[in-house]
Amino acid sequence: MALPVSLCLFASTPDIAALGFIVKVLTGNLDELAARATEWGYSGIEFMPDPEKVPEPAAMERALQASGAVMPVVNSGRMGVQGMALFHEEEPVRRKSIAAFKRLLDFAGYFDARVGLGIARGKGTPPVQVADDVFRELTEHAERAGAVIMLEPADPGVTAYINTTDEAMDWVRRIASPWFSIMLDTYQLAESEPSIEHGIRAACGQARHIHLYDPSRWPPGASSENSRLDWECIFELLHKTGFHGSASVVLAPEGDPAEAARKTAVFLSERVEVQ
Fold this sequence. Notes:
Elements: E1 3-12, E2 26-27, H1 30-39, E3 44-48, H2 57-67, E4 70-75, H3 78-81, H4 91-110, E5 114-117, H5 128-145, E6 149-151, H6 165-175, E7 180-182, E8 184-185, H7 186-192, H8 196-202, E9 209-211, H9 231-240, E10 245-249, H10 257-269, E11 272-274
Parallel strand pairs: 1-2, 1-3, 1-10, 1-11, 3-4, 4-5, 5-6, 6-7, 8-9, 9-10
Helix pairs in contact: 1-2, 4-5
């Protein structure tokens, strides 16, 4: 049996183009995002809203229903490029960031979606008590909102704090809530773990979402010249460890985005069971 996943495209509103985000994502208004994702062969989108101007859930719901798309994950990555950091050393910035993340949780909860917590935590290393307080406050809000937080290990080029799956799982065990879990990212697995297998197994089967892209920032199957990952091995490991849920891919960093996105969708649909 193939690995079952809801296959999504990273997506955001057009203003993200001015922010210099680290990967290329699908852009457009809500209707365009949902429709284009399904047209290109995807289940839906991993949406990256402006944390200061989160859309009305009803507007997103209409766009998803019109195209038959899903939105299993809300991405908080724009916080990191919009001057926010959950662990910022200055309390006013920290409080502003926490409030923004709570808005994302409220938005996601409307759809029974999950919220990724990666670069939104900031680049520095906070005191453990600060991290503990922030995680617990957000987890309490996540439970009220009905949206699971997924802590994302990130490579040291993005943040100095929580770089490995083992470190993320230490926090998952410490917070000990069904509303605070973990997600995976193949860039991080390739760059920060002793091995990709170690990183996947260290999640102990708790991950329900994964970002799929090569360290070159190319999506799977779009360019053999820009790929160094063994995707068959990765999917086999995910299957063996009980992964089920969703996966998201970025757009190709150059060339025709539609052509590459369709190529990636075909490549993945031959290796996983797209739901």
